[in-house]
Specification:
Length: 202
């Protein structure tokens, strides 16, 4: 008996999602933060149905319920694509960030915002306490916390600056995959919780 692979879901375009969020009045929410938040939740083992997903996003970002069908579908697409990419055997996970033609400073800021969202999502979902991750996993989260502060001068646009940002971006991408692999079984399901759950400190 053959199992058909589900159709591949693409991440929504950064600018399109940004426009939808503006239309919804969520002016302080960046698509990078939203994707980081979702990625952090999924990496920690969260799985959602459509209604639970939208409710969770509204609670975490402290925003009004989404009114438009487009943004509702976009958020669901973002979640499904994120989950699919995490589970893909080819490590195809991508970060939702501004296009490469945007100024380096804007892209660096968005990367920091993505990391902040990821850590928030992971911290709010994680049930096993710090011991749930290996030493490498814990170090990875600390590295992401450092990258939250990333910034570049507004006039930075040299090839060296570009290369540096690409290097950090790739590190963040692999870091997210590492955390996902530690908290989820090989089939992509959340790992079994520890016998005694340790509350997460905020």
């Amino acid at each position: 008996m053959t199992h058909e692979q589900p159709a591949s879901v693409e991440l929504p375009e950064f600018d399109t999602l940004a426009d939808w969020l503006v239309e919804e009045g969520a002016l302080t929410v960046s698509p990078a933060e939203l994707h980081g938040l979702l990625a952090g939740q999924v990496a920690a083992g969260a799985r959602f149905d459509p209604s639970t997903l939208l409710q969770r996003i509204q609670e975490l970002l402290d925003i009004e319920p989404f009114a438009g069908d487009a943004v509702r579908r976009g958020v669901m697409q973002l979640y499904l694509a994120t989950l699919q990419q995490f589970q893909a055997p080819d490590f195809s996970f991508e970060l939702l960030l501004p296009e490469d033609d945007q100024p380096l400073s804007i892209r660096a800021e968005a990367l920091g915002v993505w990391c902040s969202g990821f850590l928030s999502g992971f911290g709010l979902q994680e049930r096993k306490g710090p011991q749930g991750l290996s030493v490498e996993g814990q170090e990875t989260l600390r590295d992401l916390a450092q990258i939250v502060q990333i910034s570049t001068p507004s006039d930075a646009d040299s090839e060296e600056d570009e290369g540096d940002l690409m290097e950090v971006q790739e590190y963040v991408r692999m870091a997210a995959l590492l955390v996902f692999s530690e908290c989820n079984e090989p089939d992509g399901q959340p790992a079994a919780p520890a016998a005694a759950d340790t509350p997460t400190l905020h």
